[in-house]
Amino acid sequence: DPSRLRPHVVLAQENTQIRDLQQENRELWVSLEEHQDALELIMSKYRKQMLQLLEGRKREEAEPVLKVHQANSGEIESQIDRICEMGEVMRKAVQVDDEQFFKIQEKLAQLELENKELRELLLISKESFEVGREDLPD
């Protein structure tokens, strides 16, 4: 019966088309996965190169700042050294000044004592002169 063969032939053709479409679908999925892998590889290389480029720029941008910082730190160190030297000179000046002050104080105390003793001698001399005068007849 030809009518019975027809749906069977149509179904067989459709099954063949479905299998062909399924096979094409699998091939497309494989192709898509290959393209995704390739794109992922390309993007990872791109990211790596961009990272290296940015790091290189950061170094280039940081280098002048680093040089200025080093120059400033060297200048600051020399100023600190000068300040320390000045402090040491000031300490020595204070020490010399203190020594002179103590010498002056000692000399002043010595002169005051000598002055006191001389006054006492002068007083004794005056008293003995007056006593000697009193003993003399008028």
TrEMBL record:
UniProt keyword terms in alphabetical order: Coiled coil
Gene name of the record: Sike1
SUPFAM superfamilies in UniProt: Spectrin repeat
Coiled coil: 101-128
UniProt entry tagged with the keyword Amino-acid biosynthesis: no
Family note: Belongs to the SIKE family.
Name the UniProt record assigns to this protein: Suppressor of IKBKE 1
Domain of life where this protein originates: Eukaryota
A Pfam family matched in the record: SIKE
Entry-linked InterPro entries: SIKE
